[in-house]
């Protein structure tokens, strides 16, 4: 039976690369988006035209009911959920004194509560199946903390804590839960950085370059594969050696 993967926030960037890889590997793929209807639709269309099994589903993962609907619709369309990749996320840069409550709540609601919402809704399905793989996209800033990204770093550290706790809770049901912590990856999330800032970052990366969205997708695919059946509660850094 064909396996099914939900990739949250897969209208662009790391999520889109992950959706493409899973589709190419033979999964039914649910491309989730919130704002970017056009890029999600274009991606789904180009994959469908190449014979891959994909569908799109709008859902703001920060909204519990929409996250639940994402899981329900997937179950209705494909009958099972083998992989959930919690990738949807937003960044915010600024001093703590410039981070107001609205910014803080937005970051935490999307980056952390969104992961909680989707995990909670998918867990019931996966427990019934007695199988499943959950991969959460955190960030190396969740491990080390980034100056001027207090809310973002806290949300991503929260994802690491959630991953470890849920791995223990779901292991007896045959479900693994792991996280990937990307370094600096070439996506629109970094498009606000100046050439000088990017150059400075790249100079601090032992492998001497930014990562690509596909390199994160490959790590996610590994954790979702049978080769990773004995791996749970782990945090896989994909950062060119920035954090060792
Ligand atoms: P991106 O290109 O900005 O893509 C972000 C994705 O998240 C988009 O598809 C966006 O969809 C989706 N999204 C945002 N809010 C959402 C919501 N409320 N509900 C559903 N989807 C939502 O960023 P990216 O670089 O690919 O980032 C993907 C993940 O990797 C994020 O969790 C990010 O924190 C993490 N990460 C990125 C880097 C990096 O250097 N790029 C490093 C470490 C970690 P819509 O546009 O449709 O809303």
Characterization of the model:
Helix 1 packs across helix 8, helix 3 runs parallel beside helix 4 (101-129) and helix 4 (101-129) packs parallel to helix 6 (150-170). The chain has eight helices and seven strands; from the N terminus they run E-H-E-H-E-H-E-H-E-H-H-E-H-H-E. A seven-stranded parallel β-sheet has the order 3-2-1-4-5-6-7, with helices on both faces. With 244 residues, it is of the alpha/beta class. The longest helix has 29 residues, at 101-129. The chain has helices at 13-24, 37-49, 64-78, 101-129, 140-144, 150-170, 195-203, 213-224, and strands at 4-7, 28-33, 54-58, 83-86, 132-137, 175-182, 235-238. The termini are far apart. The protein binds NADP nicotinamide-adenine-dinucleotide phosphate. NADP nicotinamide-adenine-dinucleotide phosphate binds next to helix 1, strand 2 and helix 4.
Offer a few descriptive terms.
single chain; 244 residues; alpha/beta; 7-stranded parallel beta sheet; 48% helix; 15% strand; globular; binds NADP nicotinamide-adenine-dinucleotide phosphate
Question: What's the short version?
Answer:
The chain is of the alpha/beta class and 244 residues long. The chain is built from eight helices and seven strands.
Mean pLDDT: 98
Strand content: 15-25%
Write out the strand line-up for the largest beta sheet, numbering strands in chain order.
3-2-1-4-5-6-7
Q: Mind telling me the C-alpha Rg?
A: 17 Å
Task: Report the count of strand segments.
Answer: 7
